[in-house]
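May I ask for a protein sequence together with how it folds?
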Amino acid sequence: MKKCRITAIRIACYKDLMEQYENPITDACDMKEGQVFIANGWEKPEGFCDSAWESISPFVMTLACGGEDIYNGWMKNKKISDDLLQRRVPSGQFPD
């Protein structure tokens, strides 16, 4: 299984919806834009937000297993998930 690099490219926070629908929480996601994580196959990277992981883990698993065209032709670039959600990184190019 391949490793995937995940880059947080945008952080969205909708306080009006949170106030209306969520119970207050003490440990909200604290990821930062530009922050990079390395997923080892299906394993959630350390420090990665649980709810964000639940959203993207199926895509990470597909990429880690060598899949492409996750959106079945919907996107102009069949590797758009590689570019926007996570990127498969060739072996030997991971940070220490």
DSSP finds three helices and three strands in the chain. Residues 2 and 60 are 10 Å apart (CA to CA). The beta strands are 3-7, 36-40, 86-88. The helical segments are 15-21, 50-64, 80-84.
